[in-house]
Amino acid sequence: MLNDRKFKILQAIVNDYIETAEPVGSRTIAKKYGLGVSSATIRNEMSDLEDLGLISQLHSSSGRVPSAKGYRFFVDSMMQRRALAPDESLFLQRMIIENIFQAEYMMQETAKALSRLTNYPAIVSEPHMKKTAIKHVQLVPLDEKALLLVLVTDTKTVKNQVVNLSAAPGYETLTSLSAHLNRHLAGLSIREIDRERIDKMLAEFGENAHVLMPILGIIADMIQAEDDVRVYTSGVKNILAFPEFSDKATAEKIFHALEDRASLFEILGTPYAEATGIQVIIGEENALDLLKSCSLIKANYTIDNQGTGCIALIGPMRMDYAQAVSVLSGVLTNIRHVIDALGLRSNGGTD
Amino acid sequence: MLNDRKFKILQAIVNDYIETAEPVGSRTIAKKYGLGVSSATIRNEMSDLEDLGLISQLHSSSGRVPSAKGYRFFVDSMMQRRALAPDESLFLQRMIIENIFQAEYMMQETAKALSRLTNYPAIVSEPHMKKTAIKHVQLVPLDEKALLLVLVTDTKTVKNQVVNLSAAPGYETLTSLSAHLNRHLAGLSIREIDRERIDKMLAEFGENAHVLMPILGIIADMIQAEDDVRVYTSGVKNILAFPEFSDKATAEKIFHALEDRASLFEILGTPYAEATGIQVIIGEENALDLLKSCSLIKANYTIDNQGTGCIALIGPMRMDYAQAVSVLSGVLTNIRHVIDALGLRSNGGTD
DNA sequence: TGTTAGCACTCGCTCGTGTCGAGTGCTAAC
DNA sequence: GTTAGCACTCGACACGAGCGAGTGCTAACA
After folding, report:
1. Residue A264's domain is classified under what CATH number?
2. Which of A115, A219, B12, B61 is paired with B266 by a 20 to 30 Å CA distance?
3. Does residue B217 contact residue B224 with C-beta atoms inside 8 Å?
4. B245 Cβ partners below 8 Å, 6+ apart?
5. Any chain A CB within 8 A of the CB of B259?
6. Distance (Å) from the C-alpha of residue B276 to the closest C-alpha of chain A?
7. Chain A within 8 Å of B241 (Cβ-Cβ)?
8. B234 and B121, same structural domain?
9. Which pLDDT value is given to residue B271?
10. Residue A86: is the preceding peptide bond cis (ω within 30°)?
11. Which residue's C-alpha is at the least distance from the C1' of D2?
C-alpha cells in the first residue's frame, strides 16, 4: 500500500508528534530522521500521504499531524512492540508478590501500577461474577449486643459485617451455630437458599432461631454487593500534563467521567466480554462523545465461569501506543499469574 | 477599631470578592450594598481600610481585594455562622445511618460528604491509635492449604488475611485453636505477647504448633497496619473550578500534594492534637509554601485514650468561610454521634 | 522520471499601538 | 463630613505590521 519511503515518513511524523505534540514539518523530518532526501521530496510525499487521509494539516501553512486513520495504520502496521524495561518488570513482579494474598486490593494496585508506569489514567474493573457462592460462614463474638459475621465466597474474597442484636449468644453457642450454618450453606449461591432449608435451620437453631433471619439477610446483602462489579481508577490527574487537555473545561469533564461509576462502565463498554487481546480504540472510534478526542487501550481478562473484567488506559490520540500496549500486556500477564496462584483458573485472552 | 461604616464596607468587599473573584470597586459597593452614601465617600473609607492593611490593590487603578489580614478580621469579627440548610442536614443524617456500622468506611464517607457539600477538597485522617489491642481472633477454614485469620480490635475494626500453609488443620481443630488463641490473646496489645506466653501457647497447640508462629506474625503485621494512621481525600478535582488555580502548574502541584500521604500529614500539621474547635488558617499563616495562597479550615476530633484525628477543607483564600465552617461543624457533630454509637467515647473539641 | 533548489504564498504568533472603561485620588463646593 | 467633577492610571481588547515556519508549484538537473 505504501512504498518504503512513505512508510518511513509516516512513521517519523507519528513518532515526532507523539513526542513533541507539535505539527511536524518537512524540514524537521529531513534533518531529524535522515532519510537521505531533501525536504522538497518529503513535501511531495507528505502531500500524497495527506491525499491518502493518513495525515492532515491544521491550517494551510502548518506542519502535518497524524489523522485518526494515520494512528490506526501506525498501530496496525508499524508499531514496534516494546519489551518491558528491567525496572518496569521488577516493579510489576514486586506488585505480584505484595498482592497475591490480598485479592481485594489487587485491582486497585493494578490500576496504580498501570498509571505509575505509563503516566496515563488507568481504569480497572473487577470481573462480573455471575453467581457468587458461599464457601464459609463464621460468627465471631464481639460483645453482649453484637456479633461479627464473616463470609468467605468461592471467589476468595472475604467480607465481614457487624450484626447488632438485642442479645448476642456467647462464644460456644456461636461456634455451634457457625457449624450449623456451614453445613447448610456451604457451596450454595443465594438463590439456592429456599424455604425448606431455612425451616430446617430454624429448627436446628432452637432458642437462637431469632438470630438466623438477620444473619441470612446480611449474607444476602453481602453476596449482592459482591455481585456488583467494582471499578477502580488511578492517575487521573495525569491528564493535566497533556496539552490537548489544557482546556480546563475538557479536563474537568474527563475528571468527572472518571469519577463516576456509570460513565466508567460506558467507557469500558458493555458487553465487553467478547474481544480477546489488547484492543486499541482511536479517537472517533470511541462510542462516547467525550472520548472522541482520546484513545483507549484496553484488554479483558477472564476468570473461568465467573466472568470477564477489563483493564484500560486512557490518553490523548497522540499517546505512546507502543509503551501503553506493552505495559498493559505486562500487567495482563501479572493478573493471570495472580489468578492462577489463587486457584481461580484464568482464561485471559492472549494478545 | 473600625467604625460602623468601615465595618460594613469591609464586609461588603469580602463578601463580594468571595462571590465574584473580581476586585471590588467603590461604585459596586455603593450600588449593590446600598449604604446610603456615594461612591466617593466609600473611596475615602476604602483608602483608610487600605492604610490599615485590611484590603489591597493589585494595581493603582483596580478595585480592592481583601488582604490576608482582612480575611482574618472577617473570620474573627464579622463572619456570621450559617445554620445548615435542611437538605444539608438531611444529607449528613443519612450518612450517619448508612455508615454507623461500618467504621472502616466512615472516614472515606466523611471526606466525600465534606467535599460534596462545600465543593472544596476535603482531607480526613483517622485517629492515631496508640496501642491497638486484640479483642477477638478467629481462624476460619478455607481449603487444604489455607485458612483465614480474622482479627477484631478494640477499635471495632475487623481485618482478615489468608494464611497459606503446607497443610491446614480442619474445621474442628481450627475451632479449638481459635479458642486457645482467644484465651491467651484477648485484651492484649502486641507488646504484651511475650516469650513466656508464646511458650504456653505452643504447648497447648500440640501437634499444630507449627501454625502458631505464622499466625502470630500476621497478627503483629495487622496491628502494625492498624497503628498506621490512614488519611483520605475527596473532591480534589474541585480545585479546577477556582480561577486562582487556573494556572495548570499550581493545580498540578496541589493535586500532587493531595495524593501523597506524607504531604497530607504536613498539611494537617503535626502534632495536631493540641487545638480544639474549628481552626481557620489563612494564606501566609500556613506553614507550607504550597498553601501560602490557600486557606485551610480544620478541626480535630478525639477518641478517648486512642488519639486525635483531623478533618479539613482546602480552598483559595477567597473561600466561603461561613459555609465551610458550618459544614465542618456539622460533620464534626456527626462524627461524634457515630463515635458515641460505636461506644468509643468521643472527646471531640467543642467549637 | 525522480529529485532538488528556488520562490511566492499562507497563516499563526508576537509585539507595539490605540482605544475603552473601570476605578482611583484629589479638589472644590455644598 | 459628604459629594460631584475631573484628571489620571492601568488592564483588557482589538487592530495591524512584521516575522518565520511551512507549504505548493515550477523549472532545472541527473
Report:
1. 3.30.450.40
2. A115
3. no
4. B239, B251, B254, B316
5. yes
6. 32
7. yes
8. yes
9. 52
10. no
11. B41
Q: In whole angstroms, how large is the CA radius of gyration of chain A?
A: 27
Mean pLDDT of A14-33: 93
| Integer CA distances (angstroms), B348 to A2, A65, B127, in order | 73, 60, 11
A247, A306: one domain? yes
The lowest-confidence range among A327-331, A345-349, B235-239, B256-260 is A345-349
Residues spanned by the domain of B206: 134-227
Looking at residue B215, which CATH number applies to its domain?
A: 3.30.390.60
A222 phi/psi in degrees, rounded to 5: -65, -45
- DSSP secondary structure letter of residue B24: B
User: Length of chain A in residues, anyone?
Assistant: 351
Burial readout A222-236 (b: 16 or more C-beta within 10 A, e: otherwise): bbeebbebebbbbbb
Statement: the CB of A191 is under 7 Å from strand C: no
Mutate to test the interface with B, among A152, A263, A342 (most CBs of B within 10 A): A152
In a domain, residue B209? The reply is yes
Residue B348 lies in a domain: no
Same domain, A184 and A207: yes
Show which of B227, B249, B270 is a domain's final residue. B227
Does the nearest atom of strand C lie within 7 Å of B46's Cβ? yes
The structural domain count of chain A equals 3
Is B348 a residue whose pLDDT tops 50? no
CA angle (B87, B90, B92) in 5-degree steps: 115
* Domain stop point among B227, B245, B270: B227
State residue B305's pLDDT score: 65
Q: How many Cβ atoms from other residues are within 10 Å of residue A213's Cβ?
A: 13
pTM for this predicted structure: 0.84
Put simply, the answer to whether B182 touches A171 (Cβ < 8 Å) is yes
- Is A350 part of any domain? no
